[in-house]
Amino acid sequence: MEIGEVYYNASSQWILNIVLASMILGVALDIHWRDFKAIAKMPKAILAGLCAQFVALPAITTGLTLLLDLDAGIELGMILVAACPGGAISNFVTHLAKGNTALSISMTAAASALATIMLPLNFIFWSQVNPDTAALIQSIEVSTSSLFTNLLWVLAVPLASGLLIQHYRPALANVLHKLLKVTSTLALFVFIAVAIFQNYRAFLSNFELIFIVVLIHNGLAYLLGFLAGKYAGLGVRDIKATTIEVGMQNSSLAIAIVFSQFHGEAGMALVSAFWGTWHIASGLLIVLFFSRWGNAQPTVEVKAS
Length: 305
Known about the structure:
The chain is mostly helical. The chain has one domain (about 10-290): Na+/H+ antiporter like fold. Helices cover about 80% and strands about 0% of the residues. The chain has 14 helices and no strands. The chain has helices spanning about 15-30, 35, 45-65, 70-85, 90-95, 100-130, 130-140, 145-170, 170-200, 200-205, 205-230, 235-245, 250-260, 265-290. Helix 3 crosses helix 12 (about 235-245), helix 6 crosses helix 12 and helix 11 (about 205-230) packs across helix 14. The termini are far apart. Mean pLDDT is about 80; it is low at about 295-305.
């Protein structure tokens, strides 16, 4: 099946690059070095979650795209979302689910740092494994080397800057984080709202297909996070954290990348946008079950300090 083109204004690409960079900077400004130090206290749990996040999910997602006969843009969007780190909202959802919030925060910090390298590497590698997605990248004239370099600059530089500011100027970092949290989120929300309004026919005409694809893909991500924690022999609260962290991808990052690097490719934009909405709903559904699971067997939570 084919999806028609979506409206895209190429002149706004530089604005989106700034929005994308500000999103990463805002995240980094809220990451403390103690979040990384906590990794030494629970290495097995964090390693299990990161392996599911950066190894299993992209690989299995690519396998899924090879099995399904979907539009190449949808498949490429699935691979991009799978290559993204977990979103910060996962920490809040883990807290609501009575999971190990300290583990969730440490996983988010580690994943955000690793994503500066792993996101472009994973995306470029796995998109080349699927012949359809590889052909699509060539057809829209995206150089994989240029893509890697661009993403590295947009992801790594803001992350490093934010970590340094947080370490040496924590008061300034606190002010900037509050400012960027509002401005970058608002800017991305406005852009997405405008894009949906301008392309509402494409969204509505493909709603059923995209919803089913995202539902299956998101469910697979939660399952991988659960199995990673389960087979690593983690406790209930830790399993809750790995499940939610892997299941709630940073789809806002994916959306920004689609419009800043891929000229708003239709299938990729649709998948990323639906993920952004659905994973919040699915996260709250997970909370309904997880908040009742394991409460009779309390476990000691390692504090990230």
